[in-house]
Design brief:
Distance between the termini: 14 Å
Oligomer: single chain
Helix content: 40-55%
Largest sheet: 8 strands, mixed
Radius of gyration: 19 Å
Shape: globular
Order of helices and strands: EHHEHHHHEEHHEEHHEEHHEEHH
Structural class: alpha/beta
Number of strands: 10
Strand content: 15-25%
């Protein structure tokens, strides 16, 4: 049983997932350890879920296959395949008004290639990945701890990644078969219920480790945009006017609320890393090389600005793991 539990949480945000991937790459370089070794539970929503699964995907000998640097490269190498659409599809879908903006073929091909046949139960460290079930109208949480206990909750990692990143209007919902059953789960992006999964991760860690006395939470954002909403303009908005702003408000508002809650619950043990983006950088599907370069540069700037905090954090995570190994010996 663990006395101190180390938790990593990664927000959703599409192609902007390169930001937390770069921060985690810095943490790996500083400590000389993989993320799966530095944390006891890794949670991620949408693009954060892809990262969480990628960083805990086992390779030869059961060790993590991908480094955080390799996961950052995924966005640069595979972004154009994931968010790929033809001129004919744009015409047929009326610019995503009549159907999802992107075919699922691209993202599914990438996920199958990166995750292969590895299953959720095989994760190198515990994983929590939120999604949302639209037929049953309930949040659905993929848990490696549950997958190891019950076969019906063990899924291929690529299917988990596909489900948590099935963003409405971008990709069609995922149909995930229930193992050894004719039933299935109809799942969409976990961001609709837990775009910042840090609080969900804390609850899961408490359930797995009921005797733990301390929880250290590291929460990584994918960039927030703070455009001013004019009261004079908003007063005259109807459904069409509020449609896009209210979605941004809900996602940012829920994430900020979780941030506030954990600041109060875990003073000194909660660490949030986030950048403020320009409006031109906010699109989740902007895979232009210049945009990806800009997002990477902003992540690297965050690492420089908070280099002392990151160094101290890395040392603390390593110390917790070392002390645990010494007690076990």
């Amino acid at each position: 049983m663990l006395n101190t539990v180390r938790i990593l949480s990664i927000d959703g945000g599409g192609i902007r997932g390169i930001i937390p991937a770069v921060v985690l790459s810095r943490l790996e370089r500083q400590t000389g350890q993989r993320i799966a070794d530095l944390f006891d539970l890794v949670a991620g929503t949408s693009t954060g879920g892809i990262l969480a699964l990628g960083l805990t995907r086992p390779g030869e000998g059961g060790r993590p296959l991908y480094s955080a640097a390799q996961m950052a490269e995924l966005y640069e190498k595979e972004g154009s395949k994931i968010f790929s659409t033809s001129w004919w599809r744009r015409m047929r879908t009326l610019g995503s008004l009549a159907e999802e903006r992107y075919s699922a073929n691209g993202i599914e091909e990438v996920l199958r290639r990166y995750f292969g046949d590895v299953r959720l139960k095989d994760a190198c460290t515990d994983v929590l990945v939120p999604s949302y079930e639209i037929e049953r109208r309930t949040p659905f949480f993929f848990k490696s701890a549950m997958a190891r206990k019950r076969a019906e909750y063990d899924f291929p990692m690529w299917e988990v990644a596909r489900a948590t990143s099935a963003a409405p209007t971008y990709f069609e919902p995922a149909r995930v078969p229930v193992p050894d059953s004719v039933d299935y789960w109809a799942l969409i992006d976990g961001g609709v219920c837990a775009n910042n999964p840090a609080a969900c991760a804390l609850v899961e860690a408490m359930a797995i480790n009921p005797r733990a006395t301390k929880f250290v939470v590291v929460s990584l954002g994918t960039g927030t945009v703070l455009p001013r909403i004019s009261l004079d303009r908003a007063k005259s908005w109807g459904t069409a006017g509020w449609l896009r702003p209210v979605l941004d408000i809900v996602l940012d508002g829920v994430s900020a609320t979780v941030d506030y809650q954990l600041q109060q619950l875990l003073p000194g043990d909660y660490h949030r890393y986030q950048v403020t983006l320009q409006q031109s950088d906010q699109q989740m599907d902007d895979v232009r090389p210049e945009n990806l370069r800009n997002l990477r540069l902003q992540a690297e700037a965050l690492c420089r600005e908070r280099s002392g905090e990151l160094r101290n954090l890395g040392e603390r995570l390593v110390e917790i793991g070392t002390a645990r190994e010494q007690r076990a010996a």
